[in-house]
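Backbones bend. We report:
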Amino acid sequence: MKVFRRNILLWLGLTLLIFGCDSPVSAESKHAKKISGDCQAVILTNENFLPALIKSIDEAQDEILMSIFSFKAGEHKNSYPDRIVNHLANAVKRGVKVMVVLETTRGREDNLTLQNKKSGDLMASKGIGVFYDSPRKTTHTKLIVIDQRLIFLGSHNFTQSALKYNNEISVMLNRPDLAESVRNYILKIIRDGQ
């Protein structure tokens, strides 16, 4: 597992070096790792992802776009996915535009689709814009853009297991130049699903 994790960190570091970086982004955890001292990127492993995401949601001023493969909220009101929903709902109350894209599959009654529909219904009841991808194409993304500058991407689904127990890795990038492309990609998924 250590070799796999090292290879992932190496891949992420090389990817960021190719795209270039300017200045640091902080994460409030001793386990979050900056990719380099002069780079606007932070690696978030395992349980370090959730605090960074929630802090970013709480600081959002304009817009939050998410495209999430598996979102399992509505099971327990204090679960990590439900906490995300509550922070997103609070952002909506502050006037932030929030849009979440969820995966649906061709088999409309499979567990993933049912779970995402339940989460989507919960979010919609709290004023969050919910969209579903086209069932003709799997959307396996775990991708977030906040205020057209901050990007989260990686392996974290929004399930209790992924956010609390699994070995997961994601990257938080403060890159407005890349955020526009990522935002447009999410908006394309929304258009293709309609």
About this structure: Strands lie at 33-34, 41-45, 63-68, 97-102, 129-132, 142-146, 150-154, 169-174. Residues 47 and 163 are 6 Å apart (CA to CA). The first strand starts at residue 33 and ends at 34. Residues 47-149+156-165+172-193 form a domain with the Endonuclease; Chain A fold (CATH 3.30.870.10).
